[in-house]
Amino acid sequence: MTASTELDSTVMNVLLTTNDSEVDLDLTISDRRMLTTDIVALDLTSATGELLPNWAPGAHLEMNLDNGLSRQYSLCGDPADRRTWTVAVLREPDSRGGSDYIHDHLPTGSKVKCRGPRNNFPLEGARTYKFVAGGIGVTPILPMIRVAEATGIPWTLLYGGRSLESMAFQDELSRYGSKVTLWPQDTHGLLDLAGELGCPEPDGAIYCCGPEPLLNAIEGRCDSVWPTGALHVERFRADLPDLTHARPITVELAQSGMTLEVPADKSILEILTDAGIEVDASCEEGTCGTCEVVVLEGTPEHHDVVLTEDERESGECMMICVSRSKGTCLKLDL
């Protein structure tokens, strides 16, 4: 930790919690409430009454729905609460079946098969935090704010949405007073990133989650002003590859001794599955991190939103659901 304030043992444990205990869980929706006209909050508890696994701010839960879809949602409750996990789900205007199903077919008392927790957006120690959230992107930020507040580390939140009516968790955030700035676009325009991020702070960190235009804007703002590594972002969707000009690649599997040809219009994961190679996978969109494998030879062409820039540059691992190869061959530790 680089924070100047001394952390108590409870909060320190929250910050340092790892999510290696990812497990399959049978959960029950113990409560649901509409936060806005299109955002529902779900409280989930163990169907057997057991304590839930530890998790740290930034972690998400995978929900495996009865319609065959799997979706990932940030845990936005209290990390210290081992009895209840909370997620908030936006009904997407162009829903592919996940958010619509949750809104329309999961009343209180419903049983849901889940897997988690997994954390691709961990909160790291810093002297100050600047949080920026767009829309439903506020959900992973909420537990981070609780930790920063509990430790006495200075922080601010700039929270934007289409309108005040569309922005969830306003009651909870109101307790923090001037540390939180609500910025509805219909009355204020686009977020004032220049004002919020114009002056880099020593050992400060920025955490941002929201739609792609916001993330692109904040990356552009920070690249020339803030130190490398200060900005941490979480994306809703991966940069899926354009396969129009893709080429076939060869994948060698070190453990099984198999060599497989991956056509231009297929993913590595699809070909492995067809060949009977069992690989953990979930979203198949490069957002959850489940299908990460070690790369022994070759240079991956990354299209996920999980790996950091340093991890991408190292080329030591890849998400085989969306990523391919910059060359013609890869050797994987499978």
Q: How would you describe this protein?
A:
The chain has 334 residues and is an alpha/beta fold. The chain folds into 3 domains: 20-119, Elongation Factor Tu (Ef-tu), domain 3 (Beta Barrel); 128-234, Rossmann fold (3-Layer(aba) Sandwich), CATH 3.40.50.80; 243-332, Ubiquitin-like (UB roll). Helix content is 20%, strand content 31%. The protein is built from 9 helices and 18 strands. It has helices spanning 9-16, 98-105, 141-151, 170-174, 185-188, 193-197, 212-223, 268-274, 309-314, and strands at residues 23-36, 39-46, 59-64, 70-74, 85-90, 111-119, 128-134, 155-161, 180-184, 204-209, 231-234, 249-253, 259-262, 292-297, 300-301, 317-319, 324-325, 329-332. The strands form 4 sheets. It has a 6-stranded antiparallel sheet, with helices on one face. It has a 5-stranded parallel sheet with strand order 9-8-7-10-11, sandwiched between helices. The longest helix is centred in the middle third of the chain and has 12 residues, at 212-223. The protein is globular. The protein starts with 8 loop residues before the first helix and ends with a strand. 38% of the residues are buried. One of its GO terms (molecular function) is oxidoreductase activity. Residues 247-334 form the 2Fe-2S ferredoxin-type domain. Pfam families: Fer2.
Number-wise, the strands total 18
Number of domains: 3
Question: Helix count?
Answer: 9
Structural class: alpha/beta
Distance between the termini: 36 Å
Helix content: 10-25%
- What overall form do the CA principal axes indicate? globular
Cofactor: FAD
Domain 2Fe-2S ferredoxin-type: 247-334
Keywords: 2Fe-2S, Flavoprotein, Iron, Iron-sulfur, Metal-binding, Methyltransferase, Oxidoreductase, Transferase
EC number: 1.-.-.-
